[in-house]
Amino acid sequence: MFTRIVSTLEPITKHTAVIWSRDSNNTKNIMEETIYQLLNSDETSEEDSQIKKSHCTMRALKNWYHEHCEPDVPLVIIITDFESSSPRVLHDFISVLSSYSSSMKFILIFGIATTLHAIHRSLSYDVTSKLNVQVFHSPTQINILSDVVENIVFCTDIPFKLTGRAIQLLTDIFLFYDFSVENFLYGYKICMIQHFYANNVNSLCCKPNEIKNRISSLTNDYLAEIKKLPSIQNYIKRLQKESDEKQIDNNKFKEILTQLLSQFHQYMHRFLIVLRCLHDFMAPLPNSPMGKQLREFYTKAVYTNHLRESPEYKECMQLLGFLSKSELVSKLTSLITIIKRSKDPILKTIRTDLEAHVATIEAASLEADTASKEILPTGVKLKRHQLKEKLLKMSQTHSRSPYKQAQMDVIDYLDQKVFDKFLINPNHVPANEIFCFSDGALAKQHIRGSLRAAIHTGLNDPRAYLNCECCKLENDDAIPSSLPDLSIIYKLHLESRKLINMYDWLQAFLIIVDPKSGAGEQRDVDPSLQARFTQAVAELEFLGFIKSSRKKTDHVKRLM
User: Fold this and answer.
1) 64-86: pLDDT as tens digits
2) How far apart are CA 537 and CA 485, in angstroms?
3) What is the CA radius of gyration of the chain?
4) Is the dihedral of CA 416, 417, 418, 420 positive or negative?
5) How far apart are CA 497 and CA 32, in angstroms?
6) Could you give phi then psi for residue 537, rounded to 5 degrees?
7) Beta strands 499-501 and 555-558: pairing type?
8) Which helix (H) or strand (E) holds 222?
């Protein structure tokens, strides 16, 4: 963060000193470190510097400033951790700088982790009165995450999308564990690696203008692999049922695949635009049932099967009925502004319809029309069930004001013709496997995996990580000689009891790695094999699976 501040201030001044808490133990240290950095910011070592730290004084700084700097160029001093610095040292330091403020221009930047009151608690009034204090805040981690998600996940130029449990897992780890945007990005990269590493067909996850070239280079094996994707397989079955075709050749399938990929890009573009409209429309509602951040709306839309059936969505639709005329017009105008960013013809039609609804609402009256209200005639005798039906019909046809009717019409239009039509879960769209990664279990295995389980898997079945044929096991209990020594020792130790006899362990190891010597006991052991055994046992002890036993010197104790 402080490096970013220094780089941001470079166009204004190159003379910046960054003071850490270790350099502010006393006034002499902080003065020497500050002046040394200001004078020698471009030097790499003290031998090549213009002035040594022991000669750094305010008089030397003043002479250097008048010789090398313009009068308006400031000297920036950054105190990185204000709370951990000594108040007495800061008091003296600011007083000294203030005495030279007429000949040099100083700017102090205090890194404060708590509140501004920390300055007034630490420094006396005679010092704070010499400071012209201005406060600026760094954005919170939540806002930074929202910006990152806005520019990566919600960007229509990036074809790869996180959906389902995967996006929820990354946000849950951020909110409930570490509040680290950097770790969120690492998790995003891991999901992307797993997506493209899974199979070759995901190479079709590209921009629209690259689709034809990539499809034309597909081999028959790749096309067969794409046909096995669940969403495309269901689409082909439905297409064959409609057209009564028994089989689709590869050339026609390429045309179908090109059309599906283009349609997915159009769908995702409309999905993100309409999702922004939904967020802008429902986020300011009381108690924010759907959430306040756009990422919360996105997570609900890509995680639930049907967004309209969720209780949060239904609650928001009920709250929209209580909006005033000015609030509703303001929200609809904001939706029109969002949709204007898109050139999609279908979204332009929605914008035209919304503009017509806005004009109707603005012209609508707030007073209800009571002239046409139906009244029960007097003197007419009705049976009990007839009277009940008549009253029920009258209650259902009660008069509404023109504004109320226009409000219900626009809400129904948005609900049925916009949100229901375009906010379909991406996992229900054909070819979603090519663009979307939703495997939360696989992501969790790599992001927040169990260390013990990973070590056990690696030692018990090295092929799981090495991907080599020499480590292939016929069954879990098999111990081939091609395994690494540590894996052989580990699998042998799993067959032992609480105490392991080192001599018997060595003999079992020798039978596996040197089967030509026979199955009998080997008294004269090859020194190289004994060294391999000793090193493997030491590595297993380092991993925490065994330890030496005090009861028997020639035994080791199992810990797991």
Assistant:
1) 888 888 888 899 999 998 888 88
2) 9
3) 36
4) positive
5) 65
6) -65, -40
7) antiparallel
8) helix 220-227
Compute φ and ψ for 549, nearest 5 degrees: -100, 140
SS3 70: coil
Cβ atoms of residues 410 and 208 within 8 Å:
no
Residue with tokens 């030692």: 459
Single out the residue of 353, 545, 335 nearest to residue 459, CA to CA: 545
Residues 489, 540: contact at Cβ < 8 Å? yes
Beta strands in 223-374 (DSSP E): none
The model's confidence at residue 46, banded by pLDDT at 50, 70 and 90, is: very low
The closest alpha carbon to 431, from 165, 146, 243, 159, belongs to: 159
CB atoms within 10 A of CB 363: 10
Mean pLDDT along residues 259-280: 93
Q: Going by C-beta distance under 8 Å and a sequence separation of 6 or more, which residues neighbour residue 80?
A: 2, 18, 19, 20, 21, 111
Question: What are the tokens at 368?
Answer: 């209800």
Residue 330 makes CB contacts below 8 A (sequence gap 6+) with none
Which positions ≥6 away from 186 have C-beta within 8 Å?
447
Q: Which of 560, 541, 549 is nearest to 500 (CA)?
A: 549
Alpha-carbon distances, residue 219 vs 223, 231, 251, 262 (angstroms):
6, 20, 11, 20
CA 79 from centre of chain? 32
Q: How many CB atoms lie within 10 A of CB 463?
A: 15
Which segments of 321-466 does DSSP mark as H helices, in order? 325-339, 345-363, 384-396, 402-413, 420-422, 432-435, 440-447, 451-460, 463-466
- CA–CA dist 477, 557 (Å, integer): 22
List CB contacts of 161: < 8 A, sequence separation 6 or more: 153, 268, 426, 435, 436, 437
| Dist. CA 161–CA 154, nearest whole Å | 8
Average pLDDT over residues 207-224: 88
pLDDT (0 to 100) of residue 44: 42
> Cα 23 to the chain's mean position, in Å?
37
DSSP 143-193: HHHHHHHHHHTS-TT---EE-HHHHHHHHHHIIIII--HHHHHHHHHHHHH
Task: Please identify which residue in the block is written with the tokens 């898109």.
Answer: 342
